[in-house]
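Hi support team,

I'm filing this because I wasn't sure whether my run with pyridoxal-5'-phosphate finished correctly. The job status page said complete, but I'd like someone to confirm that the output block is well-formed before I use it downstream. Pasting the exact inputs I used:
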Amino acid sequence: MNDIFVLDHRYVADTYNRYPTQIVKGKGSLVWDQNGKEYIDMGGGIAVNSFGFSDDSWVAAVTAQLNAFQHTSNLYYAAPYVTLAQKLCERTGMKKVFFGNSGAEANECAIKAARKYAAEKKGSDCYTIVTLKNSFHGRTLTTLAATGQEYFHELYQPLTPGFVYAEVNDLADMEQKVAENKVAAIMIEVIQGEGGVVVLTPEYVKGVSELAQKNDILLIVDEVQTGNGRTGQLFGYMNYGIEPDIITTAKGLGGGLPIGAAILGEKVKDVFTPGSHGSTFGGNPVCCAGAINILDRIDEKLLAEVREKSEFIRKELSGAKGIERIDGMGLLLGLVTEKDAKAVVNSCMARGVMPLTAKKKVRLLPALNIPMTILQKAVTIIKEVCAE
Ligand code: PLP
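And here is everything the job wrote out:
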């Protein structure tokens, strides 16, 4: 057996169910394993590699920063994190940004901001955060508590208190949760990615936003998976015509380097004061230089291409043999297949295409700039595998 497989099981904590594939090289939307076998990447490192593997322009931006300086403590000013924060604010209409290293850390920051804001404004007993059932917000104890899935909760009791879970796409239930609790914030993903590519309806998202505004409850939108061009808009909420109070993002923003951001709106822009929150690597210059490169390239033209590629996939696979339904938006799509999703992924991998699963669906998260010819090839193989 491959040494790396053996050594992984001997030395690495057993937290992942890996495919028996070792990645040794990637370029754009192509990736090669230990045997030199080529695959078309349709998973993007779970929505991380926005412009594919080792993208030249991104590598140049990251390398230039590495050669200037790789890190400085947050006790000094540096241009990359400031520039990135300015760009994020200008593109969202938000006011200030806190940088961390991951989606979970971005959500932790949002939860802290909401608790602090509500405690100062409405009293220390106003701390409940309503999230949705089937949501996923991260792996720290608090973001696990925010995650509306029993399975994760059972493993690590006691979790951080103060979370209540509402039914997906059920406004009456959300109204009830708001009426029954002293609520500081509502936190949603507009598409539940890990939850199985479950899309919130426009009426529901609008309704939740209005409910939050009416009650001076903060609306946090978790854009860790849906952000950074993935849905065909810069952020997923922009498909819904709402204005969140806090946006959290990570994954695709870094294009492959760890970064998380909590983007704070008018109400919470000054909630933090020196010493009240922090992160050693937060705003790391190399990660920020990469993220600036990514963000600058997610322009209207690219977003239109994401929507076109999404339409192409939908047109090719809708009604195809063995495919019952396609959920999702942009290049975050979930296929409901007649065959077991894992079996579909395994057959695709045998034929040189690498999709993902999400719950019972086959999940597609290719690079935003996947070339059309490569996408066509991947879709043909997925179609054939589902029909077999
Ligand atoms: N929020 C959402 C919506 C996610 O999809 C994820 C990860 O899949 C997270 C938060 C956690 O992000 P990270 O693994 O970077 O902490």
